[in-house]
Design goal:
The complex is a heterodimer. Chain A is 35% helix and 17% strand. By secondary structure, chain A is of the alpha/beta class. Chain A has a single domain, classed as 3-Layer(aba) Sandwich (Rossmann fold), CATH 3.40.50. In chain A, α2 (68-73) links the parallel β1 (58-62) and β2. Chain B is an alpha/beta fold. Chain B has helices spanning 8-18, 33-42, 56-68, 79-94, 111-115, 133-150, 160-164, 214-232, 254-267, 285-291, 308-315, 343-355, and strands at 4-7, 23-26, 49-52, 73-77, 99-105, 126-128, 153-159, 166-169, 199-200, 206-207, 210-211, 236-239, 246-249, 272-277, 279-281, 297-300, 322-324. In chain B, α11 links the parallel β16 and β17 (322-324). In chain B, α3 packs parallel to α4 and α10 (285-291) crosses α11 (308-315). The radius of gyration of chain B is 21 Å and the shape is globular. Classes of the chains: A alpha/beta, B alpha/beta. Chain A binds chain B through residues 23-24, 26-27, 29, 50, 55-59, 61, 71-82, 85, 88-97, 100-101, 117-118, 121, 125, and chain B through 22-23, 25, 49, 51, 53-55, 57-58, 61-71, 73, 87-88, 91, 95, 187-195, 197-203, 205-209. β2 of chain A pairs parallel with β9 (199-200) of chain B, so a sheet runs across the interface.
Chain lengths: 262, 362
């Protein structure tokens, strides 16, 4: 067994990876804040598409939010649509070009606040698309306002002293709702706050895409991501804050999955 | 092929499929419902898809998605249902996506909604208002062509009479000429990963390798397109209007009743004719200005509290001679047409207006 002295100098110099960017990005430049979890989650999607050889047959349907930036730089045939409507738009797309991988990208304000109707019905119809929810519990793009997934106690600009059930109601666990819908074939929730979580989340995204291409039905992956700017916490505290707040309410794992093929 | 007795909703569905419509979605609402039923029955046999949507908002957004792939797509509703679709209609216009919207309206109170649009942004919707089923069949096919040609959402303004009455009709496929390929913008995933992926986005900022003009320039260009449509696509019909001293302006099925009364009053020696905008937008401004020249009365008969009369006032040769003689017209169900869609009522209102001293021209 080899032991590593973690206090010793590394046996090679640290390298800055210049010009590094995943495939399927036309640029690594974006305007997202330091500490934002979205780019990590997005990279998992792009890498999965490449690994599954879906690079030349994917259509991205993006909603409205900080992540719209990622549609702009993605080397994917893309359509940006109105807040909440991505699953409906994706329905029309997928029905007309059924051989493609259709991926929707929405935030929690987009999918759970404005578009709960669209996502639930797309799932109920068993639309053969992969719906991604990047959930940071806040309207990041507008500057930190309460969404339908803001957890109890969380401070936002419209719940200054923290979300209180009596005044602001309760957060919605959309993944849990989706598990009850017959047309939803795969429902999972991951996060990007630790390397282990990132690796686990990538497996979920890959699985969802594989199932879509196998025609299994509606596939859904929620990714809890950091928004230190919208949470009003120091950038470096984002991952820990995510674990202490959101993960307490929203459990991680595959909530619904078909049995693995033999 | 011999003429076949068909209900309007049936004939319009066939016309849409003849025009190549392969995606249809809608939320049931009378008198649009039968069109949805017919599409649900027929479209799958033509290799298409029809979805009974869970709301009008879903319907318009599903149709937008289908249109974004380059497929000929359509949706429809009426009145309040079309109100819900306005966000999507605006989005289609600013994304330059073609779509046909069938508004089988409950009467004529959707004139403003169709011609002004309730959505956001500098856009218009080409709106055709057929007077009867045979014309609706032609308009349906023409609209699919115009939507593609100008890459814009368009509206068929039908109504209860067109949707629910039947006529003997012979359908033929119409050819309006060649169209540009959709390849440069229609999404099918094949440009993904090539460095030249396509992007449909109202902000039009493009991607790093293929920058777009950005919102300001894109929306300016779109506005110029609508100005061109306004110049080139005006359509109208006049009836016995050449020497008419009194001109009655009406649209859609109402015009059939007006024209019948024009014939009767001509028999009595009255100098009267009619003018019918076929395109509600672009409003036939040039035609109306010409037709109203020298008229001592211009009477607007529409089944609402006065909507189209705004356009007539805008474009008539002399606005001081214009009188609104229509009115709100609904039956007790609130879903059909009221008592004003009736030749006796049209005749009585025209007679009353003509009996008054002619307004002095400005």
């Amino acid at each position: 067994m080899t032991t590593v002295d973690i206090h010793a100098a590394p046996d090679r110099d640290a390298r800055r990876v210049v010009g590094f960017k995943p495939d399927l990005l036309q640029s690594s430049e974006h305007d997202l804040c330091p500490g934002c979890g979205h780019p990590i989650a997005w990279r998992l999607v792009l890498d999965s598409l490449v690994e599954l050889e879906l690079s030349h047959r994917t259509i991205l349907i993006a909603g409205h939010g900080c992540y719209t930036q990622m549609m702009r730089i993605a080397d994917l045939d893309s359509l940006q649509c109105l807040h909440g409507r991505a699953p409906a738009v994706a329905t029309g797309v997928k029905r007309m070009v059924p051989g493609t991988a259709v991926v929707t990208l929405q935030g929690d304000g987009d999918m759970v606040s404005e578009g709960l109707h669209e996502v639930l019905h797309a799932a109920a119809r068993g639309e053969n698309v992969t719906a991604l929810l990047f959930n940071n519990g806040v309207f990041g793009d507008t500057g930190g306002h309460m969404t339908a997934t803001t957890v109890i106690g969380q401070r936002t600009k419209t719940s200054l002293d923290g979300r209180e059930a009596a005044e602001h109601g309760y957060p919605i666990d959309v993944a849990k709702l989706l598990t009850q819908i017959e047309g939803a074939a795969y429902v999972a929730r991951g996060a990007v706050n630790t390397p282990g979580m990132i690796a686990r989340t990538k497996r979920m995204i890959r699985r969802a895409l594989e199932l879509q291409m196998a025609g299994a039905g509606f596939t859904f992956v929620e990714v809890l991501t950091m928004c230190p700017t919208g949470w009003f916490v120091p950038t470096a505290d984002g991952p820990e804050y995510l674990e202490d707040s959101m993960m307490e309410t929203f459990g991680i794992g595959e909530l619904k999955a078909p049995p693995p093929a033999d | 092929m011999a003429p076949r007795l068909m209900q309007g909703s049936d004939a319009v569905a066939d016309a849409a499929i003849l025009a190549g419509c392969r995606f249809f979605t809608g939320y049931p609402m009378l008198p649009f419902t039968e069109l949805l039923e017919n599409m649900a029955k027929k479209l799958p046999h033509a290799g298409g898809v029809c979805i009974n949507a869970e709301s009008e908002i879903e319907a318009i957004n599903m149709a937008l998605g289908a249109a974004a792939t380059g497929a000929r797509a359509a949706t429809g509703s009426c009145g309040q249902g079309v109100s819900l679709m306005q966000e999507g209609i605006a989005e289609l216009a600013l994304n330059e996506l073609p779509l046909v919207v069938f508004n089988m309206a409950r009467g004529q109170q959707d004139y403003f909604q169709s011609t002004r649009g309730g959505g956001w942004g500098d856009y218009r919707t080409i709106t055709l208002a057929p007077k009867d089923i045979p014309e609706a069949v032609v308009h349906t096919q023409l609209l699919f062509y115009l939507a593609d040609r100008y890459r814009t959402p368009v509206i068929l303004y039908g109504d209860y009479v067109i949707a629910h009455t039947s006529v003997g009709i012979e359908l033929e496929k119409l050819d309006f000429g060649p169209l540009d390929s959709k390849e440069s913008w229609a999404l099918d995933g094949t440009m993904s990963g090539t460095g030249r992926a396509r992007q449909i986005w109202t902000w039009a900022r493009g991607k790093p390798n293929t920058p777009g003009p950005g919102p300001s320039q894109a929306w300016e260009t779109i506005a110029e397109k609508y100005a061109e449509i306004e110049r080139t696509e005006q359509r109208f019909e006049t009836y016995r209007a050449e020497d008419a001293d009194t001109l009655v302006v009406s649209f859609g099925t109402t015009a059939i009743f007006v024209d019948r009364v024009v014939d009767e009053l001509r028999e009595e020696g009255l100098s009267i004719g009619s003018f019918r905008p076929i395109t509600l937008w672009p409003f036939p401004a040039v035609g109306l200005a010409e037709a109203t020249k020298g008229c001592s009365r211009v009477l607007v008969y529409e089944l609402n509290a006065g909507q189209m009369v705004d356009d007539v006032r805008m474009y008539a040769e002399d606005r001081s001679v214009i009188r609104s003689i229509g009115g709100v017209s609904q039956d007790s169900s609130g879903m059909r047409q009221g008592d004003l869609l009736n030749a006796d009522e049209v005749r009585a209102r025209i007679r009353r207006a003509v009996a008054e001293p002619a307004p002095s021209r400005a």
